[in-house]
Amino acid sequence: MSTSDNDVLERTPEATFIHKGRRLRSTIGAFFIMIAFSTSTTGFGLLVPSGATHFQTTLGAYLVQYSLIAVLGALVLPFVGRVAQRVGIRKLIIVGGIWSAAGMLILSMTTALGPMYLAAAFIGIGWGFCTVIPATIVVNGWNDHRHRGMVLGATLTGTAIGGIAWGLTIPALVSAVGWSGSVQILAGFVFVFIALTGVFLVRNPPNMVRRPGESDARPPALRTLRLRMPIALLTLGAFLISMESGILVLVSPVVQTKGLDTATAGLIVSYFAIWQILLKPIVGVIYDRYGYKGSAFTMLVAYGVGFGGLAMVFGIQGLMTVIPFVALALTSYLVIIPLFVNLAVGKARFAPVYSIVMTLYYIGAAFSTPFWGASFDLTGSYTVALYGAVGLGIAGVAFMVLGLRLARMRAGSAREVPEVDARPTAAALD
Q1: Which residues are CB-contacts of 140 (< 8 A; sequence separation ≥ 6)?
Q2: Are 171 and 46 contacting, i.e. CB atoms less than 8 angstroms apart?
Q3: Which of 83, 101, 201, 418 is most buried per CB count within 10 Å?
């Protein structure tokens, strides 16, 4: 019998077994995609000095490519959910992975800034269709059980694990094959861990792709008046949270202003990365056990103690105490935001709404680092930026909770947000 991903099957033991197997394979595939996502963060970041030398230009001119990748990747996100509902998230991952790997190969062959910028823009377009948002959609769509938060958090640790691996290997690769060869190796890695992962592991979540003959109108959440205000509040909250993301690339400079030398600052960065790996599944468990209220309270404490403490402490002991709270706060964009959005709008509307919410997040994140740098230039320290992060983080969580509560209230009064039963009755058999 041949059926599509969202054909309805009888609830038989065989259907249940197939469903669980595809759920496991797809979740592992999403984990591999998150490992590959680290190529655009840690991997490319470690290539900055050798890249500037390769192009014989300043760091500022070379770093424009990162903004292009981030901005172009963010601009395609609103289309991810809608296209996925038509063709399936699996095809997007495969095509996006091939597109991104090809862009990296082109990038590796450029020798001037103009072609390099064009290649970066090309990569950004493909990158948005095959990394964080698609991986999250896959995990959220397949894992409809009570441990969804833990599974999502564990899957998203792939980014930090990949970052640690690149930290150990990129310096050796640059010494052996130079900047161009290193970028080509990253391209091959992306092809294997995204495109081939889409081919062999990922399957479209149940009830996601429209059947032939179904309406081609906009997704329900985007044309439902009752949900416009909740979605706007969720999006505003995500945007405010994005302003804290500058610390992700500034951990070392920030701790060096606290009296640490470069070598010790490097150890603190590794310490931070380890906590990121440990805390993402824990945050998911908190959500599974205590719901959105417990998660929101945890984030509020993390922003206050983490960023507030980082503004006040000096020395290695103080930093080692507050860094775990900073890492905890920064799990919000990968773990808390998708969980809150799913609870607010339901699984049927998750993909298109989450794409919109994260578009604003990534646009904010692309410009947050320069604001952190400007704060240092004006004041001589990161103290103002750190206290600002406390306020913006708390405000972001508050807006997300407000949007979630408003969505649930309106759903309760008008049945606007039905959850889709995606258990084995809708298992995929393709």
Answers
A1: 148, 152, 205, 338, 342, 347, 350, 354
A2: yes
A3: 101
Instruction: Determine the pLDDT at residue 225.
Output: 52
Lowest mean pLDDT among 25-34, 51-60, 404-413: 404-413
Q: How far are the Cα atoms of 30, 134, 159, 348 from residue 36, in angstroms, in the given order?
A: 10, 13, 7, 27
354 contacts 137 by C-beta, under 8 angstroms = yes
- Owner of token pair 């959440």: 221
Residue corresponding to tokens 């606290």? 258
Residue with tokens 């259907």, as numbered in its chain = 15
| Distant-in-sequence, close-in-space partners of 102: CB < 8 Å, separation ≥ 6 | 122, 126, 187
CB within 8 A of 79, min separation 6: which ones? Answer: 355
CB 58 within 8 A of CB 110: no
How many residues are listed for the chain in this entry?
Answer: 430
pLDDT digits (tens, 9 = 90+) for 340-379: 998 888 877 888 888 888 888 888 887 787 788 788 888 8
pTM of the model: 0.75
Number of alpha carbons in the 13 Å side-chain half-sphere of residue 266: 7
Q: Which of 174, 184, 186, 201 has its CA nearest to residue 27? A: 201
Go through 13-28 and write b for each residue having 16 or more CB atoms within 10 A of its CB, e for each that does not.
eebeebbeebbebbbe
